[in-house]
Amino acid sequence: MSTASQATAPPPATRTATSADGATGEAAPAVALRARAVTRTYGTGAGTVTALDAVDLDIARGAFTAIMGASGSGKSTLLHVLAGLDEVDSGSIELEGTEITTLRDDPLTRLRRERIGFVVQSFNLLPMLTAEQNILLPLELAGTRVDRAWLDTLATAFGIADRLDHLPSQLSGGQIQRVAIARALVTSPAVVFADEPTGNLDSRTTEEVLDFLRLSVDEFGQTVVMVTHERDAAERADRILTLADGQIAGDEDLRALRARRAQPAERDQHAQQPTQAPLAGQEPR
Fold first, then answer.
1. DSSP secondary structure letter of residue 63
2. Is residue 94 part of a domain?
C-alpha cells in the first residue's frame, strides 16, 4: 500500500469557527464534501485492482472542481464513491457533515435524490415529458413542492423559458443540455457531479455546456465536480485534480493562478495612466 493521497481545497469561501462556549476562532474553509483515507478495490487475490488508494480530499463549497486522469487512473471511481453510487472498502466520505459510507439503501437514495445533482454524458431526458416536466422530475420523485420562482430563474438563466412546454424531440442539442443542467440544479443540491459532460460534443456545444456549469457556480454559488479527460474543459474550473494509480498526483489552484496573472496587468494599467498636469501656479509633483 502506498502513502495516502491528499488534496486540500483552496478556500473560495470561509466561515468563522465557533467553539462550544461561543468563542470565535480563526476562519475555516467551507467544505461541501470531505473524503478521508478512501480506498476502493475490485477483484480478489492476484487479480485485485486498487482503484482508489487512501485518498484524502476536500471539495470547497461554491467552487468548480475538475478531476482528470488517464484511463484506469481512478477518476470515475472517485466520482462514483463521492456521489454515493459505489461503495468503498474503507475510509470516510462526508457530504456537508453527513457520513454517506454508512448509510443504508433507503437513506442513501434519499440523499442522492435531494442533495446531489447529476449531469451525465447522454443527458438522459425522458422523451415523453416536456422540458419543464424533465426539470421538475427530481422534485416529483422526492414529493417536494415546486418553487416556481427558482424554476423561472433557472429557465431564464439558461435561455429555455420559451421552450419549457416542448418535448425533447422538439429541442436542439444545446437546449437539451441546458434542460439537463437545470434539472441537476432544481433541488438546490449540495453538489452537482458532471461525468464527462462534453465527451461526445462538438466544440461549440462543449463551450455552451461549460459556460452553463460555470454560470451555475458564479451566479448561483453551486458546488460542481466534473470528471473530464479534456484539459481545455478542465481549465474552465477553479481547481484541477489529477489522478494516477488511484492517488491524487496533482492539485492545481487555477483561481489563485488567475489572480496572480491579473496583478501585473493591473499594475501595468495603473502605470500607464497619464499623470495630471499641474495647474497654473502649482509646483509640478
1. -
2. no
Total domains in the fold of the chain: 1
Rounded CA separation 146/137 (Å): 10
Q: What is the pLDDT of residues 80-123, one digit of tens each?
A: 999 999 999 999 999 999 999 999 999 999 999 999 999 987 77
Of how many residues is the chain composed?
285
* pTM as predicted: 0.81
Residue 222 region, left (φ>0) first, then alpha (ψ -120 to 50), else beta? beta
Q: Which residues contact 65 (CB under 8 A, 6 or more apart)?
A: 9, 59, 224, 225, 226, 237, 238, 239, 240, 241
List, for residues 260-278, the tens digit of each pLDDT value.
887 765 566 666 666 565 5
Model pLDDT, residue 236: 95
Range of the domain at 119: 62-84+105-259
Query: For residue 129, what is the domain's CATH number?
Result: 3.40.50.300
Strands (E) across 63-182 are located at 64-69, 90-95, 98-99, 116-120
Q: Is residue 161 part of a domain?
A: yes
What are the cell numbers at 258?
488567475
